[in-house]
Each structure stands twice: as structure tokens, then as C-alpha cells.
Amino acid sequence: MTAQNEAAQAPDLLYSEAEEDLRSAVRSLLADRADAPTVIAGIESDTPHDLRLWESLAAGIGAAGLLVPEKLGGQGATHREAAVVMEELGRSAAPAPYLTSAVVATEILLALAADGGPAAGLLGELAAGSRIAVLALPFATPPADGAAAMTGTLERTVTGVAEAAAADVLLVPTAEGLYAVETGADGVAVQPLVPLDLTRPLATVTLTGPTGTLLAEAGPAAAAVSKGLLAGAGLLASEQLGLAEWCLTETVRYTRERHQFNRPVGSFQSLKHRMAQLWLEVVSARAAARNAADALATNSPDAPLAVAVAQAYCSKVAVHAAEECVQLHGGIGMTWEHPAHLYLKRAKADSIAYGTAGRHRETVAGLVELPAP
Amino acid sequence: MSTDIDAAQIRRRTQELLAAHPPATTDRTDFLKARFDAGLAWVHYPAGLGGLDAPRSLQPVVDAELAAAGAPDNDPRRIGIGLGMAAPTVLEYGTEEQKQRFLRPLWVGEEVWCQLFSEPGAGSDLAALGTRAVRDGEDWVVDGQKVWTSSAHVARWAILIARTDPDVPKHRGISYFICDMTDPGVDVRPLRQITGEAEFNEVFLTGVRIPDNRRLGPVGAGWKVAQTTLMNERVSIGGARIPREGGMIGTVAKTWREQPGLRTHDLHQRLLTLWVEAEVARLTGERLRQQLVAGQPGPEGSGMKLAFARLNQEISGLEVELLGDEGLLYGDWTMRRPDLVDFTGRDAGYRYLRSKGNSIEGGTSEVLLNIVAERVLGLPAEPRNDKDVAWKDLAR
């Protein structure tokens, strides 16, 4: 392999200036409109999603259309930019249907919108942030199960659908193909559940034969759904990275200030080592998450492995960071008032979303030929 | 300070070197000397000292061109301590005469270096060292004992830190010297290790006379000079691009694929977890490399040694278990004194035992975690009671 080939194949693991600019815009919006007290107040209201915040993020900044080409009404950016938005959403733990609508549903529609038709129309609305669509599958569905999801009819109950309560449209996989179904249509009931992670609500969707629009036959739809789930799992790693970073930064800040035994608790070696270890995990998670985002952005043949590696690694880092955050905050970390619990709940729910670390390790085993006994 | 040399110019100079000294017909050492004199040894070094004052990021251009042409390299594994630690210190603190005398034979490999830092009573607390250097006319007379000295049995020179003033606090009374390992007062004894072989040595220094012109930096400033050495010890990582399964995980993965009879479910779970972690460590190193090339060095390097130490230990431990009956055997307990650390080339038992040193050598993992916590995260230091006490009054 020549040096040039190698360079062409090497993933770009850094952030571009444009990506850093996007980050600043998203971060300042979220700092302004989704600080911890606002988020905590919101999750206890009947409408956890702040639609004005969504409008600013999706339409104002244009974040919802990052994956969508300009000719279809989007920003013509890539998964690399969308990953930066995910990092910031992870850092703020704000409720926003970004992952479900602007990543997974958008990616599915993108795969189906090549020759115009209803998928292209809906895609434009999602990119503009004027409507929200979610895939009607359990949030835990891993990319590997995308094809298997093409079963049943529009008469069914689907449990654990993320952000269904906020959605205008459901993308429903059936044996016939993929349907777009309006949540307001007759024959659709969306029943909110009590989720572990209050910042990403779940619902049971009950379909009793509503009228839907067929977006694609089962074959192409299965490939599109798998692609959507792969993008979801891959960019979830960036959310997990942002979340873990917040937990570490906040824990370091707190232990520098909190005094016990006449010194800052952050000066005790046993605590310092735990935070240094966490720092190393966060640094590593960043490389894994950037690798997944870059592989998705470049449509690399390596994308399935890059995503499985990122999920197998970043899930655990986010949970570890959130658990350490609660523990090292002591009693404060156990209170409802302090935001640590938002991150713990989000991290734990994320560790199941789009497949557990164990499921992703099984995918790795298949891809790199390390078979089970 | 770097000049405006670009990649195309570096590539042209490299081609000129290859044309004037064809690797196929040129003696290895002669080629290396010519490369040094052409400024292509370490391009970021000054002109005349093996470099061109060029950006460090251009070195991979030279290395790739030379590798493609089949040119000999300077065997960095054999001269690692000189290359990675002595050279940057000589460059930063040496006199012009010292730089001219030492850098070329070091880089070419004519002179191997070792490092006389650690002592039986001063490992992680390196500044507590007790080896004394007493001024006597134009010389310093050195007495003491050093330990864990790799390559001492083949080294021509050593970087040495010794106490020149016991009456001030420990960090302030140290000076830094270049020690001639052929001096009659230097006694190198093999130190047999856990692996059965003597990769390291004990070095006894008895009345060793070092001329004052082989001191690096001012008298009493040895701790500051040593920081340059120690920083460079950890910075060398991240330079080379590692392929997937490039490290120790590759050996285990190969065994797994080739010997289905050894597989168990428990080992499978552990193998997959470690495979993922090794891949992530590889990507983290790659990201660090890209940062360096882009001129944005981050603190990640200080974490990489921690990650590799733990991974090597866990992977080599898994490998011994995976091998089962074969894992009960050990290749060779014969006492040997190797020229270099042959880390992956030997059997699983050796790798398992040798990797135990990865979390101790070059700074223990515990000390590195403290460094990350204090310098990267900005956490407060633990209270200390040794900073303002004269070295001679410290408990030991």
C-alpha cells in the first residue's frame, strides 16, 4: 500500500473549523434555552419537548437538514456535522427528537428518495424542521435487526417507540413495505409510557388499520431501515461522548470546590485516579465516535464495523461516566435537583438504544471473523 | 523555529540522497551518515545536526520515501533511549560542542546510550535520588547506585542525574551529566528479571570522574533538565500508524481463528471486549497522530501509555489461558542479556510476564494517573511534606 492510498483511506478523526462553528452555535442555543433547571422543569410537565427550542435548533440553525442534500431542502452536510450536534445534545441532555427524526427517519427517507415521490416530500419537511417523523420500532432495535423488522401489517402494537409522542409521522415497517402513517390519523393511538430516561420519552403505538402511504416495497425498505438504524447507532456514540464529557467536566469542577477533611476532595488520590481514568475513556470514546461518524459520512465499507466498535465502547464509557458523576458528587448526586440523574438515566437508556454493547460485540465478531465456540 | 521547507522539497532532497548513495550498493552505516549529513535524520533538528529546521510533520514524508526505496533505518529499537531521551535533552541543554560531539554517532547507532536515573531508593519519587556528585577541580566525582538500566551492558554513554547539593530541598540540588560508561569506576551487573532474562542492569558508580564540560544545564538545574528527558520519553508514541490488529491482539486473534478447539464462551466475550478496546486504542493513537500533524498537539499522549499497559497485560493474560496446555509451558528460562526488548516476537508466557513491567517502567500507571489528574484535569495536588525540607533531612 502506498503512502497516498493509506492517506486516502485513513479516517479523518479531527473536527473541522466549520464543525466547531456549528458546535458553538448549538452549544450557545442549548445553554440559553435548555439549561438544567429548564430541562428538569420540562420533563415534569405534560410536554417534555420544548417545541420552540426544536424550531430554533432544527430550522433556525438548520440542524435538522444536515444530512439532506440542498436540492431536497437540506443543508447538504454530512454525518460528521450531525455528530457534532449529537455531542452537544448529549452534553445538555435536552429533550429533542434529533436522533430519531433528523438522523434515523431522515436517513431512511434519504435511501428511498432518489426518484422523488412521497419519501422526498416528507424528507424536505423533516429537513426544514416543520414536521417530526420517527421509525415505529422499539428503541432497542439494533441495526442487524433492520431487515427482520419488515413483518406484520398496519394492525399491530409496537412498544417502546422513542419520541413517538412528539412525532407527526410514523415510519412503519410491514411485510408489504414501509408506510408513512400520520400520528393524527384514524386507527393510530400513541400511548406514552413512563420511561427510565425522561428526556427521551417512549410510547406504545397501536395501529388498527390506519391509512398510510407506501414509501417503498419490502426489499428496498429493509435496506433503508438497516441504514437508518446504522446511522442512529453510529451517531448515538457522539451523544454518549458529549454526555460523558459533561459528567467528567462537572465532576472535576465539583471535586475541586467541595472541601472535606480540610482539603478539596479532588486532591485525594483515590478520586483523582478515577477521574483520570475517566478522562482516558472519554479521549478514547472521541476517537471511536469520530471514526464512526467519518465512516458514515464517507459511506465507507468499514462503516458497519466502525459503528459496532463505537457502540460497544462508547455505551460503556457514558454509563461509567454518569455513574462516577453521581458517586463523586456524594449525596448531592442523589438529588432530583442536581442534573446528574438526567445524565445517568440518559446514559443507561442509551446503552440499550439501537442495540446493547453486547449485541454490537456480536456484530464485531461476525465482521472480523472471531466466531463464537 | 522552522523554515519554509515544504513536502515537495523534502521529497526532492530525499531522492537526491538516494541517488547519491544507492541503498543497494552503500554500506549501512555510510548511508546513515549521509542521511544525517543531508539533514534527513530528524528534519525538525537544526541544520548541521541531522535536520533542516523543517516542521516535524514532514518526517513521515522522508521515512515513507526511504522505506519505499529499501533504505536501511537506524534501528530505533536498539537506540531508543539515545534517540528518544538523550538526544532531545542534548539538543535543548547541550553546548554547541556537546551537540556536535554526540548527536551524529547517537543517531547513526555507532554509540548506544542508557539512562542512569532510577535508584533502589528513588523510583517514582525520582527526585529523592542519593547518588552524589562532588566537585573536584575540573571534574565531578560520582558515587552511588542506579537500577533498572536497560542497555547499560551495551551502552557507550549515559545520561545521569546526581545530587550536587544535599543541603537544599530535593528538587533543587540535582545536576545532570553525560557519563562515560567505559570509565573504570562504572560497574554494570545484570539484573535478572521475572522473565528469567536480564534485560535491565544495576549500575554501581564508584569514584567516577566526569569532566565539568559533560554537564548538561546549570549546576542545581538537573531536575528541570530531566523534565525534558521525561517528557520526551512519553511523547514518542503516536508517531507511527498502526494497522488494525497491529499490536498484541493480532496474535491472539490469529490463534482464535486457527484453533477452534481452544474456544470457550467466556474467552470469546473477553476476546471481543479486548478486540474492541485495542481497536479504540489504535484509533485514539491515530487521532493523536493527526492532531500532531495538524499542529494541534493535545494531552492525549500521556494517556496512551496507560491504555497500552493495561491492554497488553489483559491481552497477554487472555492469551496464556486460551493456549491451555501450551500456556502451561514457557519457552526458555535461560539467563540472557538481550540487546533490545523483543516484546511480541516470543511466546505467550514471556509476553504475559514482560507486560507486567508496562505499568511500572517509564512512570508507573499510578504516577501517570496523578499527572493526568493534576496537569490535564487541573485537580489539586495532594498535600506534600517534602518540598521545603533539605534533602539530607528527609526520612529514608
Provide an overview of this structure.
With 373 residues, chain A is an alpha+beta fold. Chain A has helices at 3-9, 17-33, 36-43, 51-60, 79-92, 98-112, 117-128, 218-257, 269-297, 303-328, 340-350, 357-367, and strands spanning 133-135, 155-162, 169-173, 177-182, 188-192, 202-208, 213-217, 259-260, 263-264. In chain A, the strands form 3 sheets. Chain A has a 4-stranded mixed β-sheet. In chain A, strands 2-6-5 form a 3-stranded antiparallel β-sheet, with no helix packed on it. Chain A has a two-stranded antiparallel ribbon with strand order 8-9. The two termini of chain A are 34 Å apart. Helix content of chain B is 40%, strand content 13%. In chain B, the strands form 2 sheets. A 4-stranded mixed β-sheet of chain B has the order 1-4-5-8. A 4-stranded antiparallel β-sheet of chain B has the order 2-3-7-6, with no helix packed on it. The model of chain B has no long low-confidence stretch (mean pLDDT 92). Classes of the chains: A alpha+beta (373), B alpha+beta (396). Chains A and B meet through α8, β9, α9, α10 and α12 of A and α3, α7, α8, α9 and α11 of B.
Content of β-strand of chain A: 5-15%
Alpha-carbon distance between the termini of chain B?
A: 45 Å
Tally of strands of chain B? 8
Secondary structure class of chain A reads alpha+beta
Write the layout of secondary structure elements.
The complex is a heterodimer of chains A (373) and B (396).
Chain A: H1 3-9, H2 17-33, H3 36-43, H4 51-60, H5 79-92, H6 98-112, H7 117-128, E1 133-135, E2 155-162, E3 169-173, E4 177-182, E5 188-192, E6 202-208, E7 213-217, H8 218-257, E8 259-260, E9 263-264, H9 269-297, H10 303-328, H11 340-350, H12 357-367
Parallel strand pairs in A: 1-3
Antiparallel strand pairs in A: 2-6, 3-4, 4-7, 5-6, 8-9
Helix pairs in contact in A: 2-5, 5-8, 5-9, 6-7, 6-8, 8-9, 8-10, 8-11, 9-10, 10-11, 10-12
Chain B: H1 7-20, H2 28-37, H3 59-68, H4 80-93, H5 96-108, E1 113-116, E2 132-136, E3 139-146, E4 157-163, E5 174-180, E6 186-191, E7 200-211, E8 215-216, H6 222-235, H7 248-258, H8 265-293, H9 301-323, H10 348-355, H11 365-376
Parallel strand pairs in B: 1-4
Antiparallel strand pairs in B: 2-3, 3-7, 4-5, 5-8, 6-7
